[in-house]
Amino acid sequence: QLQLVESGGGLVQPGGSLRLSCAASGFTLDYYAIGWFRQAPGKERERVSCISRSGGWPNYADSVKGRFTISKDNAKNTVYLQMNNLKPEDTAVYYCAAGFSLIATICTTTYDYWGQGTQVTVSS
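The chain above was modelled as a monomer; its predicted structure follows.
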C-alpha cells in the first residue's frame, strides 16, 4: 500500500516549536519532490514549503520564511518540517504530499500522493 503518514503535530504555545515528519511506505521518495501544505478552518489550502527530490532547493511561503525548515532524508524515506517561533496563525491541519519529478533540482506543482494530515494548534 502506497501511503504518506504525517506525525508530530500537537498543541504548542506561541513561540514554541514542533517538528513534523512525513514517512512514506510502499514507495521510495528518491524520485519525488515533497510539499508541505496546511489548511485552516474556512481558509484555502496553501503550500508552506517544498523540497526537490534530491533534498535541495527548499522553497518557503513568505508567511513561514525564516521560521520553518524543510529537510528530506532519502535513506529514512522521510521528510521533516521543523517549525520554530510558532504563531497562532500557524494553526491548521498540515499535510505532506509527494510529486514524481524527473528533475532533481526543483519543486513540483503536481502531487501524486497525500497524507492524512496532522493537526497543529498554536495557543496559549
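The radius of gyration is 14 Å.
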